[in-house]
Amino acid sequence: MSARSEKGVRNHLPGTGPPGAMHKWFLTPFSLLSVVGLFLLMPGAACAEISVHLASETASLFVYEPFTLRLDVQCDAPPDTPELPVVPGLTVTTVRRLPSDPARRKHAFQIEMIAERDGILTVPPFAVRVKGEAAFTSALRLPVSRPRPASEMSLAVAVEPTMLRVGQPATVTVTWNSAVSFTRCKQLRFEIPLLADERCRVFPLDPPVPESEGIGLPVNNIRMVAQADALPDGRQSLSFRYQLVPREPCVLRAPPAQLLCALFQEDKPAAQSQGHFYNHFFEAAEESEAFEEVYLAAAVPEITVRDLAETGRTARFAEIVGPCALRTSVAPTRMVVGQPALFTVHLEDLTFARQITALPSAAFDGLRCEFQLSREPIREDGTDNTRSFTYVLRPLHAGIKRIPAVVMQTFDPGSNSYQTLRSESTSITVDVDQEDGSPTFTPRVDSEPPIPLHGVRHNRLDERTMIPLQHILEFLGRLWWVFVPLAPLLWLVLLPLVRRRERCRRDPVYARAVAAWRRFRRTVRRDEESAWRVYLADRLALCAEALTADTVTEALRARNVDAGLIAEARRRFEEKDAAEYGKRPAAPSHGTQNLVRRLQKATAPLLLLVWVLFVPSPAGAADRADELFVQAMQMREEKPDEAQPLFIDAALRFESAERFLNAGNSWFFAGENGRALANYLAAQRRSPFDRQLRDSIEFLRANRADAFPSPAAPPGKLAVAWNRYGTWMPRLRVGSFVLAYLLAWAVFLTAQLTGRRVRRAVWVVLIAAIIVPLASLAQTSLRHAEGVVIEDAVARLGPGYAYDPAFEQPLHKATEFTWMESRQGWTRLRLPDDSEAWLRESECMQVE
Fold first, then answer.
1. In principle, which of 110, 379, 499, 663 could form an S-S bond with 390, CB 3.0–4.6 Å?
2. How many angstroms separate the CA atoms of 664 and 699, rounded?
3. Taking 60 as the threshold, does the pLDDT of residue 21 lie above it?
4. Rounded-to-integer distance, Cα 686 and Cα 668, Å
């Protein structure tokens, strides 16, 4: 209701005039209508009343730190979400509506903002609208400040010494001095990058004060106990120390140490006493508290670490750099053979001892001839400057008087040389065991084989010292078109030699003639005249003494043999001649002779070509994929996000080179188990005898999300072997066919050249070996291909997104299936439980 309307109403109501004035009230029709209208308009005016209030919920505002404003609106209806004006240096991140209270007409918004510059930033008035009505907020001034250097404080970092050797401890002391009380500090953030360097080990040191007097500080997000002191000038001081032990030679140039805290104007009453576990340094400042942020920075000295000298180092070196005192003790000192005793090695007067975790085994070489010593210590004790290791010692025979000295080596950084430490020998008495009377003790060797674990195996390299069987079969299968006709061509080449040997075996005259000709060729170069004389004599003698029917008849008549017997011998000779030297087949045609001659001439170049193909090509430069894989494995522990693209790039390169095992390893480390399993299965088809490859496949199958019952194995070992043989790559089975084919031809040619008979069982085995690969190829050509799910996907009842899901849960990576058919970018698959579904082709992968 406006002020003007309210004044008009008051002038028409009794008692609204000046004091003491007398008015008369006349109830006329016009006044009656005015009063009724006034009462009808009053509820609408009440609804139109809007009050707004904007204030900051955060008392201390800083640059680039989020803060919140609260907008309270009092009205009947819920207000619209306000639109804040653009303010230079202020960014609105979130406008959140808070729960309303309609009964009390209260509504609120929380506005989160970030200041991008310091100074006084003003939020101008903006409108808040409720059902078309608007009310404007007041301008809000926001004082924004920056963290300032803490002039009333100081920070120092000291390192002693700064020139180190590998393994030599150095003391890092951090001191924080303040002219104001530390109780005014909250929300402390202490960062010392030197302590996070991976090239050194860091050990915090407890201050030399009671535990109740230690004060905890958050240093590098870890609680560190500091020592509090009061300086002569009235300032307060907190200090803490570390021992730094370098791992490798380097130069440590660490960024400055930084301290940031919230500093209040006055001391805050502590809810509890300061302590090492929890105090005000760990408390966060409340939004309603006013404070300022201060910071400090301190330079860290440069530390130079050099390597230990290599000259003089032996197996007894104990990784101790600096001074050390060595002594030993044993309890009890009187024992019997085989009785266990506690043998303790004490290291004392060390600069720092907590980095020493074990003693070299060679330090106890002098004891092992007469004692059995446990492999590992059963107890370890120590302080910051001492260390002791306790072992179990058993004497092996009676009569031992002393325990030999323990000898080990340390490094002296002052003289830059190795020092040999030798303990004093310990006197003991070893008696014979009275129970069994044995003067000696036989130690029992408790050894167990290591327990194997399952996982993905290593990559394979192309450099091979031996050619595996699968590579030989793959080579034969790839060049089957060369080897299949090669055996008949080789038979054509050897056919004249086979015929000559057969004729020599059956015709002694021809055999002697061939022998005379060979003898002539061997001797003609040395003595031509003698070679011709021997050759002519041999040939003439052969013609005179040839064993024919006529010569045999004349020889028998000369010896007065009966005519009937002579006729019978002649008849036998003629029958033998007719059987062995009957009518020869007709001579081949001229064209056939030319064809055979051309084939014989072409066989030699073909054999030369096969020989060239057998010679391996020289190894080239290292494959880029191997380099990427090695680089990714080095980055995998520290930067897995950067290593994943390298694994994927290496996997794609391995796949293009058909090195499927390495591709599977790359996909596995990239987090793609489905693609890894598909490549492992492709590699198993090419390397069916690789046991480590089978382990990798079983590891992925055991860790996949979807589990299906394994299909029933066929009965009988022969059926199992036949199914396993059917999973070989077709090229390998073709290679096995070629190998059996060539072996059969080799047996045949050997039999022909040597004139020996081959047993029928051998021919049956060779023919079966030739038929089995052909039958397997014919059977697998009728089977469907195998596939693997490579992405978590929802399987559907048909080839399209309009079909309902086939299962309640999506199919996960590494699920194996049978690839039934492909249709318009979709694949129909059959799972091991005989259920069928459809997937996008991009979500699955066919096993090659």
1. 379
2. 13
3. no
4. 19
